[in-house]
Amino acid sequence: MSSLDTETKHTFKHDSVHRPHSIFGRAVNLSLHPGRMILFPLRTWFLQRYKGKYKYERIMFAFDLILVGAILALASMAAFFFLFPYKNFENKISFTATVAPREIITGAPSTLVIQYHNGTKEILRNAKLNMTFPDHFLLQDVSVNNSNVAENDIHLGDIAIDATGDIHVKGVMFGDVGGKQTFKSTMTFKHGTKGDIVGKKISTHVFSPAHSTLQLSLQLPDRVIASQPIDGTITYKNTGNIDFPEIRIEPEWPKGFSLSETSTPFLNKAFTLPKIKAGSNGILSFSGYLGDVPNSVDFVFHPSFAFGNDR
């Protein structure tokens, strides 16, 4: 057996008699007994300060260890809060948002009311608010604490401790009925005893339109005959006070129906209407032939606003 193997076996049997002498042997010994390195200072302290000096020396020693551990834990917490006092600072600044009227109608004006509250123990200096609006949102008016402002980069000034305020954003949402309209508000400010700490609070507010100001009504004959021509008309109306952009009406024809004639351009499988002024209405007509039909047939039309390639 080599000398290295002999030393290793001898180390595995380490006790007060068999003590390794080489560096390798001591390293192996320490790796096998890591607890000895940790407990050695405590054992030494116990023998010097407690052994033979107290009636319940072990209980006193354990109690002092717990007391020292509690003091160290409290000191660590204090140091953490001293070094990182603003870790959750922004969480104490709250934003709430409501909309009026409660039921949002796409194509109709509504007012978003954002209320903020400084729940921190510091003044928020030189606070500014930037608003990001949904796609195709038509901004009409912004006011801060009942004072009109002309831009979405809103200067709030200094916000005192426990102070509140509100921002009114009036505009028109052109979004899918039942879809999501997301508003994002970003507040930046400075705080601290010298006012040199930069902070940021970001909040998002999501709303969903329930109806549209574009109304459609369809007129068809009460009775239809298979393989015979059929005429229909669609009446459309802008019930709001905002002019509509381009309108597309995509039909879902019954099975076997073939379109033959329309009064309005039929492009890319949809009727295309020009801009519709507020309060105005119009009529488009179509003709076609039914194929073999069951007892009843369904004509379905899907209207949408068109903003370039977005609908």
Structure description:
Helix content is 20%, strand content 41%. The protein has 311 residues and is of the alpha+beta class. The strands form five sheets. The chain has a five-stranded antiparallel β-sheet, with no helix packed on it. Strand 9 (181-191) and strand 10 form a beta hairpin. The longest helix has 27 residues, at 57-83. It is elongated, with a radius of gyration of 39 Å. The chain starts with a helix and ends in a 5-residue tail after the last strand.
Mean pLDDT: 78
Instruction: For the largest sheet, list the strands in their spatial order.
Output: 1-3-8-5-6
- Structural class by secondary-structure content: alpha+beta
Alpha carbon gap, first and last residue = 85 Å
Number of strands: 19
What overall form do the CA principal axes indicate?
elongated
Helix segment tally: 4
Largest sheet data? 5 strands, antiparallel
Unreliable segments of 5+ consecutive residues: 1-17
Helix content: 10-25%
How are helices and strands ordered from N to C? HHHHEEEEEEEEEEEEEEEEEEE
Radius of gyration, whole Å: 39 Å
Q: What fraction of the residues are assigned to beta strands by DSSP?
A: 35-45%
